């Protein structure tokens, strides 16, 4: 297994650590940063999420730079993204920081695209994420990070950055899902 795939797998292994930090009731107290007060465990959880998210860029960078792009990597990378983002969004619903209906739309898109990828794989096609899919992923990561960090930096200005970021992520999630199905519509022509 090459280095980029190992980095991708490390992202998957960080998910349970993130979940334990965010959902187990630790008594770590509160922290105030830039005028925003939040539980220390939310701050630590946000850092773990951000570190896990940056591995998405790192594994892709190494895979392209050293010509280590593999079918396994094309499959694992988007799967790791979906698992991490889905876990974080479910945590945000549990903490009542995100509306459940928005998270249902986002996770439904992820399941639908994964299903389409499986159909394509069955026909011998492994499709890497396109630019719109990458924009979708990064807008989701920004929205999740802002929500986990309690809208840090913007709360003192009464600017709802985290909420706006969530709406932007939802928009790109829907758009990229529709685009993915449109670009791969040939699959449905063969399955009559």
UniProtKB/TrEMBL annotation:
The chain crosses the membrane at residues 12-28, 141-158, 164-183. One of its GO terms (biological process) is glycerophospholipid biosynthetic process. Keywords: Cell membrane, Lipid biosynthesis, Lipid metabolism, Membrane, Phospholipid biosynthesis, Phospholipid metabolism, Transferase, Transmembrane, Transmembrane helix. One of its GO terms (molecular function) is CDP-diacylglycerol-glycerol-3-phosphate 3-phosphatidyltransferase activity. Pathway: Lipid metabolism; Phospholipid metabolism; phosphatidylglycerol biosynthesis; phosphatidylglycerol from CDP-diacylglycerol: step 1/2. It is found in: Cell membrane. It is a multi-pass membrane protein. NCBIfam families: pgsA. Belongs to the CDP-alcohol phosphatidyltransferase class-I family. PANTHER family: CDP-DIACYLGLYCEROL--GLYCEROL-3-PHOSPHATE 3-PHOSPHATIDYLTRANSFERASE 1, CHLOROPLASTIC (PTHR14269:SF62), CDP-DIACYLGLYCEROL--GLYCEROL-3-PHOSPHATE 3-PHOSPHATIDYLTRANSFERASE-RELATED (PTHR14269). This is CDP-diacylglycerol--glycerol-3-phosphate 3-phosphatidyltransferase. It comes from Oikeobacillus pervagus.
């Amino acid at each position: 297994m090459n280095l980029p795939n190992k980095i991708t797998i490390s992202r998957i292994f960080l998910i349970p650590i993130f979940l334990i930090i965010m959902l187990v009731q630790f008594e770590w107290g509160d922290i105030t940063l830039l005028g925003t007060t939040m539980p220390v465990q939310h701050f630590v959880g946000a850092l773990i999420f951000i570190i896990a998210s940056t591995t998405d860029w790192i594994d892709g960078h190494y895979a392209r730079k050293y010509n280590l792009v593999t079918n396994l990597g094309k499959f694992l990378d988007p799967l790791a993204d979906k698992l991490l983002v889905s876990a974080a969004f479910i945590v945000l619903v549990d903490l009542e920081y995100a509306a459940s209906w928005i998270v249902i739309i986002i996770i439904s898109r992820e399941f639908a695209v994964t299903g389409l990828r499986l159909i394509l794989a069955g026909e011998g096609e492994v499709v890497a994420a396109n630019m719109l899919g990458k924009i979708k992923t990064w807008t989701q990561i920004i929205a999740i990070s802002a929500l986990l960090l309690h809208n840090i930096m913007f709360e003192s200005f009464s600017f709802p950055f985290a909420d706006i970021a969530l709406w932007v992520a939802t928009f790109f999630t829907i758009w990229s899902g529709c685009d993915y199905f449109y670009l791969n519509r040939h699959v449905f022509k063969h399955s009559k």
